[in-house]
Amino acid sequence: SSGINAEYGVDNKIHLKGYAFSGAGAKIIRVDVTLDDGTTWHTAELQQDDSPLNRCWSWSIWEGDIPLPEGAKAGDEVKVTCCAIDSNYNRQPEKVKNIWNLRGCLSNSWHSISVNLK
């Protein structure tokens, strides 16, 4: 199988990290993460400075200990999906098909990766 390998703890959580960016100076105010195709969402912790909401011109780092779906075990593959919300309350679109364009501009839909549990 493809994807990233990840170990999980006795608490049945995996530690995830990532980054988000909004553009136009808007600050990322929340990043949500799901491991079950959006049935449940978990809010990640943001690691960012105290810049004003309209003066943020860099990536916002996030991380969190996210609970695995019920019944997940070593050898399983889990799809991790994240979605960011900025200070203008813009939320990333779920799918790229509604925003696709030839040049690839503003291709900013939810991001997903596969994780192999070890």
Q: What report would you give on this structure?
A:
The two termini are 13 Å apart. The strands form 2 sheets. A 5-stranded mixed sheet has the order 1-8-7-3-4, with no helix packed on it. A 3-stranded antiparallel sheet has the order 2-6-5, with no helix packed on it. The model has no long low-confidence stretch (mean pLDDT 87). With 118 residues, the chain is mainly β. The relative contact order is 0.30. It has strands at 4-6, 13-20, 28-34, 42-43, 45-47, 60-67, 77-86, 111-117.
Task: Write the topology of this structure.
Elements (H helix, E strand, L loop, with lengths): L3 E3 L6 E8 L7 E7 L7 E2 L1 E3 L12 E8 L9 E10 L24 E7 L1
CA(first)-CA(last) distance: 13 Å
Number of strands: 8
Binned strand content: 35-45%
Separate helix tally: 0
Oligomer: single chain
Shape: globular
Helix content: under 10%
- How would you sum up the major sheet? 5 strands, mixed
N-to-C SSE string, H for helix and E for strand: EEEEEEEE
| Overall radius of gyration | 15 Å
Q: Can you list the strand order of the major beta sheet?
A: 1-8-7-3-4
Q: Could you list the spans in which at least 5 consecutive residues all have pLDDT below 50?
A: none
Derived structural class: mainly beta
